[in-house]
Design brief:
Chain B: Keywords: Cell membrane, Membrane, Transmembrane, Transmembrane helix, Transport. The complex is a heterodimer of chains A (382) and B (286). Helices cover 25% and strands 33% of the residues of chain A. With 382 residues, chain A is of the alpha+beta class. In chain A, strands 6-7-8-3-9-10 form a six-stranded mixed beta sheet, with helices on both faces. With 286 residues, chain B is mainly alpha-helical. A two-stranded antiparallel sheet of chain B has the order 1-2. The radius of gyration of chain B is 25 Å and the shape is globular. The chains are: A alpha+beta (382), B mainly alpha (286). Chains A and B meet through helix 2 and helix 3 of A and helix 9 and helix 10 of B.
């Protein structure tokens, strides 16, 4: 429990903010740092979140995504940097003053209260009158299809119903931002997909900002306007789902999203003046706009998505070809994920239609040729 | 094939049976048997100081119509419920401190210290209170030194409470602390997150969440205090006739075992009803 003595007089603008232009973002994180003793959890984190956007923060376990959310909610102090909401410096606002309700991974519903009282809790804390509390709670219970469960206990609800109670409990106070910490991770796949649709619909209808932490690609990419990918306490890339899918900014992002093959290459200029990418797997052509910026000898990663690689049993005449051995295959409905490995040890992932796979007539251990068009390669520095 | 299957099933049944056997045996031998005996005894007769098996309602009529029985019953109930409330109130801040403010190490040490009183006999602890509370005792001397002459503290309601707190406080603190330690701390964060300040969080979240532990602790304090004989005898000086003292007196005066059985059965019924009511209250949702 925090003590009252920790509450300091609030300043509306941080000292460091005076020298900077005011931000128009709804929530801004500026140079946020968080350390636990010597361990750095979050480092130099900068993020602007626009009003009414659905932002998904994702990354592997321990990447700092939950820490970031907890700092936003005020559950953790920042070790450095500024948190701004609508230009107001909120670093030193206590948790109970922040008005950023959170849907917890464990849901954290109050087991000693009925559904109605759970939803009412935030309003009661804000000193909303009894009559208004009643109508607003009822309104939200109806919106989320819970009107028949108002007087039940939390332990008498299904997983999906509990999820809705947790949402209603936050949204009934009409916040301008909602924080969600892996809220769907406890649900089964079917229910999770259903809730994803509902969450997105709610966010659109309410027009409030959602900050959604998840480790699930499908959740982030199906709902978010902006996806932020974190790794080791830093933001690797922030952008639209399409942007991140088509143009991963770092090898980490490409590897984290999966479904891409990564070739380590060096840029080399041919006598003809044309630039090619040379690596242990051979020499590849690429026509992406990034090619123009490359210097001779520069180390790059060539990323090719699984659906852009084709496989033939014999070496053909394609411009970018590499011989590889089949090491595994996974059937996902009508699609097959084929895992290949080149002589140099590079892993290649190829996505094929089931019937194309049958036509190829290959098995684990067969050597095949993987190829792709020069315009389909994507180049990343490093 | 089938025989080996049935042998396996039989051996599994036997294994489960062996483990579950002690419980019904214990309950039958030490609870159900004595209970039936006690109920039967309450209908017996005493002739010339001799117990005679009989079936007559005289004992029940006699006891339940006696004003001294109901006086003792009410007195015992009030003493026990006061002790339960007092002990719970004293224990609450202690348990909160143990669960929320102490480090893990300090917590182990403190909880360990609360177990130490159980190493010595309760009788010994009550006897040592006599030294403090008696007419020329330490407390009297100290009070006299600052000009307060209060006479003996022995045989007062205060002495009774001191004895019962001595008996039940460590247990209640341990029960309350365990329930607070098992409280999901995310609930407190969730309350803060919904705008609940640090003063309000205690009454809006922490206490309701640990209510089962608080009620259970109070229930144990009530049960122990309701049936206590030692404090009522040695610190109350027999001045406050409680149900336990009534049983002892009834047995001593003319071998009235059947009437003592009536008192005992009334006590058991009271405790049973109190326990059920407390548990219903502990898990009630608001």
């Amino acid at each position: 429990m925090n003590s009252l003595s920790e509450i300091k007089p609030a300043r509306s603008v941080a000292p460091s903010e005076l020298e900077r232009p005011m931000s128009h973002a709804h929530i801004s994180l500026r140079n946020i740092r968080k350390t636990y003793g010597d361990a750095v959890a979050v480092e130099n984190l900068n993020l602007d979140i626009e009003e009414g956007k659905f932002v998904a923060i994702m990354g592997p376990s321990g990447c700092g995504k939950s820490t970031m959310l907890r700092m936003l909610a005020g559950l953790e102090d920042v070790s450095g940097g500024d948190i701004l909401r609508e230009g107001q410096w909120i670093n030193e606002l206590s948790i109970w003053e922040r008005d950023m309700p959170m849907v917890w991974q464990s849901l954290a519903l109050f087991p000693f209260l009925t559904v109605r009282k759970n939803v009412e809790f935030g309003l009661r804390m804000k000193g909303v009158g009894k009559a208004e509390r009643k109508t607003r709670v009822l309104d939200w219970l109806q919106k989320l299809g819970l009107e028949g469960y108002a007087d039940r206990g939390i332990d008498q609800l299904s997983g999906g119903q509990r999820q809705r109670v947790a949402l209603a409990r936050c949204l009934v106070t009409e916040p301008s931002v909602l924080l969600l910490d892996e809220p769907l991770s406890a649900l089964d796949a079917h229910l999770s997909v259903q809730m994803q649709g509902e969450l997105k619909r709610l966010q659109r209808e309410l027009g409030i900002t959602f900050v959604y932490v998840t480790h699930s690609h499908s959740e982030a990419f199906s709902m978010a306007d902006t996806v932020v990918i974190m790794n080791q306490g830093r933001i690797e890339q922030a952008g639209s789902p399409e942007d991140i899918y088509l143009r991963p900014a770092t090898p980490f992002v490409a590897r984290f999203l999966g479904g891409s093959s990564i070739f380590d290459c060096k840029a080399r200029r041919l006598k003809s003046g044309e630039m090619v990418l040379e690596g242990p797997d051979g020499s590849f052509k690429c026509t992406g706009p990034e090619m123009a910026d490359l210097d001779e000898g520069q180390q790059v990663s060539l990323i090719v998505r699984a659906d852009q690689i084709s496989v033939t049993a014999k070496a053909g005449w394609a411009e970018n070809e590499v011989a590889a051995r089949v090491v595994g295959e996974e059937f996902i409905g009508a699609l097959v994920n084929l895992r290949l490995e080149t002589a140099a040890g590079t892993a290649i992932t190829v996505q094929l239609q089931q019937r194309d796979m049958q036509a190829l007539d290959i098995e684990v251990g067969t050597t095949v040729t993987a190829s792709w068009h020069p315009e389909d390669g994507h180049i990343i520095n490093g | 094939m089938t025989s080996s299957l049935s042998i396996r099933r039989l051996s599994r049944l036997a294994y489960g049976g062996i483990w579950s056997l002690p419980l019904p045996l214990w309950l039958a031998g030490f609870f159900l048997g004595p209970m039936i005996l006690l109920i039967w005894l309450s209908f017996w007769d005493v002739k010339n100081f001799l117990l005679t098996p009989d079936f007559q309602l005289e004992n029940w009529k006699k006891m339940l119509s006696a004003p001294y029985f109901w006086a003792a019953y009410l007195r015992t109930f009030i003493i026990a419920i006061s002790a339960a409330a007092l002990v719970s109130l004293i224990a609450l801040p202690c348990s909160l401190a143990i669960s929320f403010f102490l480090s893990v190490r300090a917590r182990m040490v403190v909880l360990g210290l609360f177990v130490v009183p159980f190493f010595t006999s309760y009788l010994v602890r009550v006897y040592s209170w006599q030294i403090y509370l008696t007419e020329n005792g330490i407390v009297m001397k100290l009070l006299a030194a600052i000009g307060i002459d209060s006479g003996s503290l022995l045989n007062t309601p205060l002495a009774l409470m001191i004895g019962l707190v001595t008996l039940t406080l460590p247990l209640v603190i341990v029960i309350q602390s365990i329930s607070m330690l098992s409280l999901d701390k995310t609930l407190i964060d969730a309350a803060y997150n919904l705008g609940c300040g640090p003063c309000r969080v205690l009454f809006a979240t922490v206490l309701p969440a640990v209510r089962p532990g608080i009620v259970l602790g109070a229930l144990f304090a009530f049960i122990f205090s309701f049936g206590d004989f030692v404090t009522a005898t040695y610190l109350g000086g027999g001045k406050f006739t409680t149900m336990s003292i009534l049983i002892a007196d009834t047995v001593k005066s003319g071998q009235q075992w059947p009437r003592a059985a009536v008192v005992a059965l009334m006590m058991i019924a009271t405790l049973l009803i109190t326990a059920l009511a407390s548990i219903a209250f502990a898990y009630r949702r608001t």
